[in-house]
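Message: I would love a firmer grasp of how sequence relates to backbone shape in proteins. Thank you; the sequence and its tokens follow:
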Amino acid sequence: MSLIAELRLADAQLVLRPSLEAAPGMTLKREWATAADRTADPMLFVWASGGDFEAFEAALPEDPTIGEHECIDDRGDRRLYRVTVNREVTTNPTPIDRETGASRLSIETTVDGAVLEVRLPNREALSEYISRLRESGFTVDLLRAHDADDGGGSEYGLSEKQTEALREALHAGYYEVPRETDLGTLAEEFDISEQALSERLRRGVSSVLAATVGEPTEPRVGIEAETSAAVGGAADDE
């Protein structure tokens, strides 16, 4: 059975790390990566949010980890950049992915390092993956690992959608003080209404609390009914 692991990487020359040092509040979320062949420098598409865009963009021309770069979408609170990676400077984990059967699901980078979510064939492959990353110069911390079919939330009674929503909200800083994102931005990611996402998060948090610190309180029937009607029965897909 395959498993999903979440790792924190640091110390090696991560892509765009120098630019992040100029805008330390920035978070980069990779959307896509592509390369013409294994020898070509890959092209990355990354969403940037939560920091000083002017400072970040001013640092891009001098960033040794990349070559060409361009902002191709501006949503106000986040921007999408297309950058070409300089493989002569950065550490490239792609060969490790191929040799261990790893599939990268997501990667978010801040000035403190990168959080990588990856699918691997089994726990032996995970151990080998971590060892190979460390041999390549990364400092690696295993944050969590779970069987791919349980969504990481079955122990808390979470549905797959609740697990996904809570994970994304946590990564995006929704639960930070002060918050680093808002409900509307998260709802756009899931293509659902703010009300539907709010209820999904509340139900997920309630399940986690019930499994860790006590039983959930009974919902107030009037409010619960009004909420379900407002989101068009969104609770049914939780």
In short: The beta strands are 3-10, 27-34, 43-49, 66-74, 78-85, 103-110, 113-120, 139-147. The first helix runs from residue 17 to 22. DSSP finds eight helices and eight strands in the chain. The longest strand covers residues 66-74.
